[in-house]
Design brief:
Layout (H helix, E strand, L loop, with lengths): L2 H12 L3 H12 L5 H8 L7 E6 L6 H13 L5 E7 L17 H4 L4 E7 L11 H10 L4 E5 L16 E6 L5 H7 L8 E4 L7 H13 L10 E3 L8 H18 L1 H30 L1 H12 L5 H9 L2
Parallel strand pairs: 1-4, 1-5, 2-3, 2-4, 5-6, 6-7
Helix pairs in contact: 1-2, 1-3, 2-3, 2-6, 4-9, 11-12
Length: about 325
């Protein structure tokens, strides 16, 4: 993608052309040669959107909740982008849920852009390039970017390095599963959402979460617990209000700045590791690497010794 065509593509994307937005995101997600130029051109315009992370165990109704959230944000006329990270197909590597059927009604709205991306085996609930896609969508003028994670349970904590506000979604009836998530995503939650709260057991779930929160040692921000029933839209306004209150507190306390600084550090380190690995692989060469791997596989060399040997000039 030449410089002029990149500039033209960015201009069309900023005007809301969905095809151009998709092309920019594909270039960044697939790490195409034009990706650095795209990010360089857009990065000065980032930092304006509110990035909301929606995470939690599978079956919590996250996609339906995101659908409702996007609709409510659109009532304020702001542009909304959704990045939905899905499990990868073992055959194609693509996102299994692809077009996000539950959000199809929003795809007809010119003010909403939906992007599904495959996790491609990346742990932590996000894909490797999620932060970069969020930056692109932020720079293109979206007021809110909603990031929905895969839904893998207590290890799904990478969203904190991308989102300004993390909403942890759970549902009645999980029982001991709530204890299981306590040691993971509960600690990064800014807002706790009990979805499907019209079901039996909602009161018990709220009580369990409140008890867990009471064990925290003087937190400067106590995550509110919001009851929702995303299918009917119940509680969505209260959720938007809770997100806004967290945003105001984060700005006043400096938490927003601290979190974004940590996110920047994480992204720089990620790119640095990738660049160093590419250079190292180029210097070592496939022949030397394959020879070392063969010796390790034949038990003639241990992995540590193989690495030491490959790193020698």
């Amino acid at each position: 993608m030449a410089a002029t065509s990149t500039d033209d593509l960015i201009a069309r994307a900023r005007s809301g052309d969905k095809r151009s937005i998709a092309r920019l995101l594909s270039a960044v997600e697939n790490d195409e040669p034009s990706a650095p130029a795209v990010l360089k051109a857009l990065y000065p315009k980032t930092g304006q959107a509110d990035v909301v992370g929606i995470t939690g165990p599978p079956g919590g109704g996250k996609s339906t909740l995101v659908n409702r959230l996007a609709g409510l944000y659109r009532e304020t006329k702001m542009r909304v982008a959704i990045v939905a990270v899905d499990p990868s197909s073992p055959f194609t590597g693509g996102a299994i849920l692809g077009d996000r059927i539950r959000m199809q009604e929003r795809s007809l709205d010119d003010g909403i852009f939906i992007r599904s991306m495959a996790s491609r085996g990346h742990a932590g609930g996000l894909a490797r390039a999620t932060a970069r896609l969020v930056n692109v969508l932020d720079a293109l003028g979206n007021g809110v970017v909603i990031v929905e994670t895969v839904g893998v349970g207590q290890e799904e904590v990478d969203v904190v390095s991308v989102a300004d506000t993390v909403c942890l979604v759970t549902v009645p009836g999980l029982g001991d599963d709530i204890q299981a998530i306590k040691a993971g995503v509960l600690e990064i939650a800014d807002v706790l959402v009990v979805n499907k709260a019209d079901r039996p057991g909602a009161d018990e779930t709220v009580r369990d979460l409140a008890q867990m929160l009471s064990l925290a040692k003087d937190p400067s921000w106590k995550p509110p617990i919001v009851r929702t029933a995303a299918r009917s839209g119940e509680g969505i306004e209260q959720l938007v209000d809770a997100i806004a209150k967290h945003r105001a507190w984060a700005e006043e306390s400096g938490e927003r700045t601290r979190r974004r600084r940590e996110a920047a550090r994480s992204e720089v380190l990620t790119l640095l590791r990738e660049a160093l690995l590419r250079r190292l692989e180029g210097r070592i060469g496939d022949a030397r690497l394959d020879a070392a791997v063969s010796r390790v596989a034949d038990r003639r060399l241990d992995p540590y010794a193989a690495v030491d040997e490959l790193l020698r000039d």
